[in-house]
Write a structure and sequence with these properties.
The chain has one domain: Rossmann fold (3-Layer(aba) Sandwich). 48% of the residues lie in helices and 12% in strands.
Length: 285
């Protein structure tokens, strides 16, 4: 019986790069597509993160203000994307905002107030892991706001974002789109993994049961808050790694920062993964 080709300890000891390892894999005719995909992902991520460092330096130097919103259903990959964006950035000029439920005092204030104080300062990038758009989808689905509060928000948010636009704040709004089956698979993975179990909340538990209600409010949100000055960017996120790479590419593509022409990979996002919202009878989520 012919022996199945495999990598040996000696193979690993003599390689000094991913390319050399792939050459050996090819020579031995070993089929490991997952390994190749992982190596490609890691190489691309590193190249894109180098560009993010350049971008952050340019934003700081030119006193720009950038806010990036990460929205989507539970388990859509928002947190993982933010980590890949921020892991090599200077923490002095970048922040993560992930607000808990409002206090009693905050509930008596204008809804946007608690978010306004979290907006970026001059030269800063702020990542919002969920945002004021909680009131557009999660809160009405879960009964956390009343109809008047919801309606007031939907009228006010385009005006609020237009003020940010006129004040030269750059706002990027991502919606991470996943299928119902993919969400269920990720929920199950969280429950089966002790290190991820904390991610599963009572709200998550309702995600599958209230799927259609989430869809209704999501579509209402898009129809009333997708504007020319503050568009929604839809991310097809069933493949986490691809979504991470393409989100970074999109952000980089929006700025003419110093050293951009020296990038080691393409900075143009895949239009099959990243797209502006458009009304369609068929949606992934």
């Amino acid at each position: 019986m012919k022996e199945t080709p495999r990598l040996t300890r000696e193979d690993f000891e003599k390689v000094s790069s991913n390319k050399e390892l792939l050459d050996i894999i090819s020579e031995k005719n070993i089929s490991i597509d997952k390994v190749k995909n992982r190596i490609f992902y890691e190489d691309e991520l590193k190249k894109l993160q180098i560009e993010l460092v350049k971008l952050q330096r340019w934003i700081s130097k030119n006193k720009k203000r950038v806010a990036i919103i990460f929205e989507g259903r539970d388990a859509a990959g928002k947190g993982g994307n933010i980590r890949r964006f921020s892991e090599h950035l200077n923490p002095r000029s970048t922040r993560l905002v992930a607000l808990t439920k409002p206090t009693e005092v905050e509930r008596g204030q204008w809804y946007f107030r608690r978010y306004i104080k979290e907006l970026p300062n001059s030269g800063e990038i702020v990542f919002f892991d969920r945002s004021w758009y909680n009131r557009a989808v999660v809160e009405p689905v879960m009964g956390f706001c009343n109809e008047t509060q919801y309606n007031n928000f939907m009228v006010q948010v385009p005006e609020f974002e237009h003020m940010l636009y006129e004040d030269n704040l750059v706002l990027i709004k991502f919606w991470f789109s996943i299928s119902k089956n993919e969400q269920l698979a990720r929920f199950n993975a969280r429950l089966e993994t002790p290190l991820k179990r904390w991610k599963f909340s009572p709200v998550d538990k309702k995600g599958q049961e209230l799927w259609d209600s989430y869809t209704h409010y999501k579509e209402q949100m898009f129809s009333k808050t997708h504007t020319s000055y503050s568009p929604w960017i839809i991310v097809r996120a069933n493949d986490k790694k691809v979504a991470r790479l393409e989100c970074i590419r999109y952000v980089l593509s929006q700025f003419n920062y110093e050293g951009k022409d020296e990038a080691l990979t393409t900075l143009l996002p895949d239009p099959n993964i990243i797209m502006r919202y458009h009304r369609s009878s068929k949606q992934l989520d």
